[in-house]
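TICKET: design request
STATUS: open
ATTACHED STRUCTURE:
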């Protein structure tokens, strides 16, 4: 589904016989290999850190995240008041959200206009969230 969503052609037909019968390879064109690798790596990271995430076309990076510790602390979405990130690159929002989920940091997103978003965290998580954001930003190539 991840490859379909970004319109990368692929073939994952199982081999009909032989030692590879149970293997489900995904084959892409050489020209799409690097991009497909990135897409599938991101999908696997989502699954590894939050298996409740839907991989279908309904996935929206603006969905909030509330881990168990936030619930135990009695935090409500309106308690997440510290602005962490604002922008129009929803792929960047997706990456920041994934990193925050990996560290179980609660966040909520406001989208005041289509194509833009503001991400908020709880004041208690601000310092760690800013460090994570910096790591994500440093890992982004502007080429």
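STATUS: resolved
RESOLUTION: sequence designed for all positions
ATTACHED SEQUENCE:
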């Amino acid at each position: 589904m991840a490859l379909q969503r970004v319109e990368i052609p692929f073939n994952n037909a199982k081999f009909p016989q032989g030692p590879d019968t149970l293997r489900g390879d995904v084959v892409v064109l050489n020209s799409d290999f690097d991009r497909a690798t990135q897409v599938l790596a991101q999908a696997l990271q989502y699954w590894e850190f939050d298996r409740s995430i839907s991989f279908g076309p309904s996935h929206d990076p603006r969905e909030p995240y509330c881990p168990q510790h936030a619930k135990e602390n009695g935090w409500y979405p309106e308690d997440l008041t510290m602005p962490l990130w604002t922008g129009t690159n929803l792929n960047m929002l997706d990456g920041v959200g994934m990193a925050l989920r990996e560290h179980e940091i609660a966040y909520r997103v406001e989208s005041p206009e289509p194509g833009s978003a503001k991400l908020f965290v709880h004041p208690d998580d601000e310092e760690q969230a800013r460090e994570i954001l910096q790591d994500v930003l440093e890992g982004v190539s502007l080429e």
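CLOSING REMARK: Confidence is low (pLDDT under 50) at residues 54-58. The longest strand covers residues 82-87.
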